[in-house]
Amino acid sequence: MQFIKDFTSELKVVSPGRINLIGEHTDYNMGYVLPTAIEKNITFELQKNGSKDTCNVYSKTFDTGFELNLNRIARSNVEWQNYILGVINEILKRSDKLKGFDCILESNLPTGSGLSSSAALECGLAYGLNELFDLGLSKLDIVQLSQTAEHTYAGTQCGIMDQYASVMSRAGHVILLDCLSLESNYIPIDLNPYKIILLNTKVSHNLATSEYNVRKQECEQGVSIIKNKYPKVNSLREVTQEMLVDCKNDLSQKVFNRCSFIVSENQRVLQMADALRLKDHKKVGDLLYDAHEGISKLYEVSCPESDFLVNFSKSFHTVLGARQTGGGFGGCTLNIVHADAVSDFVESAAKAYKEKFNIDLEPFKVEPSGGTTAISLISSN
Length: 381
Ligand code: GLA
Fold this sequence. Notes:
Low-confidence stretches: none
Number of strands: 13
Bound molecules: alpha-D-galactopyranose
Structural class: alpha+beta
Largest sheet: 6 strands, mixed
Oligomer: single chain
Number of domains: 2
CATH architecture of the largest domain: 2-Layer Sandwich
Strand content: 15-25%
CATH topology of the largest domain: Ribosomal Protein S5, domain 2
Distance between the termini: 31 Å
């Protein structure tokens, strides 16, 4: 693209991906989650280009880009462009200060791996444009407008967790986020001598978007039926296992299972927060295995590859627990592994996975890291 030749970066934004320790699919059910940013991220270099409405975006990683006009924002047929266009669309609703800009992106965050590369893309751009044009948006505005962009332009009816974690995380902590009140508590995470190891299955089954929206509808269906007996209930967050059992005959087995998973997953998040505070590592591991069981059997958002890796980890006494992390149907499993046993576990898992699926596993260690940062590269005087 032409603009790259004369590009002078004014601002650099680093926008991270995230893991979720526990609390899957609870965010859009107004429950609890426990995510943190990781050190894998997307970097944005931005400059104002002096035009009123012409913008250029180029991805170094994928060597592809596009030009857009601020007066003609519409959905694109090219999937990744919709994350950019959706954010711009939301910013234009909130501010008339946005003008022409150029942006170069670079990512070391694997896409489709359940680590929220989409939230990193949305939030990083919103964060950067907010700084560059002094739009006056708060961090929470950035989180919320990015979530809306995902609904309207990318088509996933996601909760708020990914965007919140990408922007708001603190190094060495997980965020206990109440998705109903948006109150958050930063919980220090010290798993020493254990490490968090991700195993990227390298599969992202294309059910992810369609089935995600179906799960959301199934939960809403559950709430509307439970409401007949318990009129005050507005979300699964307010439902207990006892209430659910009381309504069992009115619910299909499938909807009962979905609701049952969410109700117990919310409890697991709170138990996990306690286990971290008490440094009860065994409990941390047990909760992960329990969660995966529910993800696989009740919520049915796992896949043979993730199930295989989680089961495989159970034969290692050096692994405390494991589960698939993120929206589901592939992506990464998260494993809590003793520091001395990491290479043994990773090598054995890679070998077994290759034999079973003929796929090269991609393992990496992650540390709970800080949220989005911006560095101005032009001095203000
Ligand atoms: C995706 C969504 C999140 C959340 C997770 C599942 O990552 O973007 O909002 O629902 O799935 O926990």
